[in-house]
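User: For a reading group we're discussing how well predicted structures match intuition. Take DUF4177 domain-containing protein. Before you show the prediction, I'll give you the sequence so everyone sees exactly what went in.
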Amino acid sequence: MKEYEYVEVKFEAKGVLFHCTFEPKEIINKYAKEGYSYVGFVPTLIDAHGSLRKINLIFEK
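Assistant: Thanks. Here is the predicted 3D structure of DUF4177 domain-containing protein, as structure tokens, for the group to look at:
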């Protein structure tokens, strides 16, 4: 049976732009070293302007 991990990434306002609170590349590389494969992401919070505020990165083992 496959095992899945979900890692929440938040985007916060910095002036008129949004940025990640964590670097997704670092998270993906960390999980790859643990034997996981990156599968994709799911938006979990979108603001009234259609901007992503939170996503879950999905990893599979």
